[in-house]
Each structure stands twice: as C-alpha cells, then as structure tokens.
Amino acid sequence: GVVCVSVTYWYMFVYTYTPIARASGRSYMLLVAICTCLIFISPALLFAAPSNVVCMLQRVIIAGPTVGIIAACLVRTFSIDRIFRQPGVRQRLLSKRLVMMIIGFLI
Asked: What residues of the chain score a pLDDT lower than 50?
C-alpha cells in the first residue's frame, strides 16, 4: 500500500500539468492521497500512552480519512453520472468550490 501511495504522489507531482492528470481531477486525487497518507499514519497512535486526547485522535484519524475517501469517490461518481446521463446535452460543470463544499458536507 505504501508503494502504491508513493507512486501516486510521484505521478501527481511530476505530471501535474499533463492532460491525463487534468482529466482525472487533481483535487479528487489530492484528497484521496492525503486521506490515504493519514490512514497509513494512524496506527502510530496505537503506540501512544492512553489518554482522552489520544483516544479521541484515534477515532478522528481513522474514521475521518476513510469518510473523506468515500466522499471523494461519491462526488466523482456523481460528476461522471451527470455527464453520461444525457449524452447529447451539454452539462454544466461543477465548480471546484462547490465540489469541495459537497465533500465537506458528506464528511
């Protein structure tokens, strides 16, 4: 998993301005990469001394990024569905601000 995330980060930062990276939605890819990194870091909290703060952080660090990945996938699927629902009609694109607000609402 760590190798796949590292390759994704490398691809994202080296080929940021290529047509493939632009078409895949860099904001979604960045959100999924950050959430995946947080999920990989979360087991480190299991080695910390138990306290109220550590227990709260464990729940937030494990559940938050998982929900973030699911929300990004749902919004991306919604965007693709809107495009292919009526192929002959030009759909209005969702702005990045609106997409991030929807993801924030889902989280």
From this structure: none
